[in-house]
Amino acid sequence: MSFMNSYKHLEKLCGEIMRDERRVSAYIDEMTCTPFGPSLVAGWNNDLKKLKHYRHIRNLIAHEPDCSEESLCVPSDAVWIENFCTRILNLSDPLSLYRRALAEQRKAQAKRIPQPQDLDFENAVRTNENFNKSSANKNNGNKAAKHAAAACFAAVFTVAAILILMLILFLFFINGKINPNSY
Questions:
Q1: What is the largest CA-CA distance in the chain?
Q2: For the chain, what is the HEC assignment?
Q3: How far apart are CA 27 and CA 23, in angstroms?
Q4: Distance CA 88, CA 162 (A)
């Protein structure tokens, strides 16, 4: 297949998945504006560079006199574009892989954050020593339970600290150290 035919195939696919008249340019813009694409998808920068290069070649062929496929392209260019089209169809293109990686991250994050309905409030209040010895051993393979207990311990500690501070302020008012009517 020739370069221009392969590029037209790519344009059609990009137009369909991006739902944008700019087609390949819309795909490139989406990749450019995706903040963590290179860190989440192997080969991201290489694919982006190739897409920009092939868009430039296509524009030269379409708009510049004396530019042709024969002078600007080699057969491997059309092969790369067709392989990229196949990746789009198989959902293994950079944007599909990025969306999948984000979904997996969110799913893993949701597993790590204990939900209120998952907390065992009866057994969650423990001293730090008891938590480290008994709970850590019992829940050795269950990180979510450890995080839930730690979160509950932190919440109980915070409430206790607030109550102590309120008691200290109350005692100051009673002893006349602070006169609330002086304001």
A1: 95
A2: CCHHHHHHHHHHHHHHHHCCCCCHHHHHHHHHCCCCHHHHCCCHHHHHHHHHHHHHHHHHHHHCCCCCHHHHCCHHHHHHHHHHHHHHHCCCCHHHHHHHHHHHHHHHHHHHCCCHHHCCHHHHCCCHHHHHHHHHHHCCCCHHHHHHHHHHHHHHHHHHHHHHHHHHHHHHHHHCCCCHHHC
A3: 6
A4: 56
**pTM of the entire structure?**
0.61
Instruction: Give burial (CB, 10 Å; 0-12/13-18/19+) of 72.
Output: middle
- Per residue in 8-37, pLDDT (tens digit) is 999 999 999 999 999 999 999 999 999 899
Geometric angle at alpha carbon 38, from 32 and 44, rounded to 5°: 75
- Lookup: tokens for 105: 């991250």
CA distance 147 to 118: 11
Long-range contacts of 59-62, Cβ-Cβ distance < 8 Å, separation of 24 or more: 61/3, 61/4
| pLDDT tier for residue 150 given thresholds of 50, 70 and 90 | confident
pLDDT at 53 over 80: yes
Q: Which amino acid is at 112?
A: R
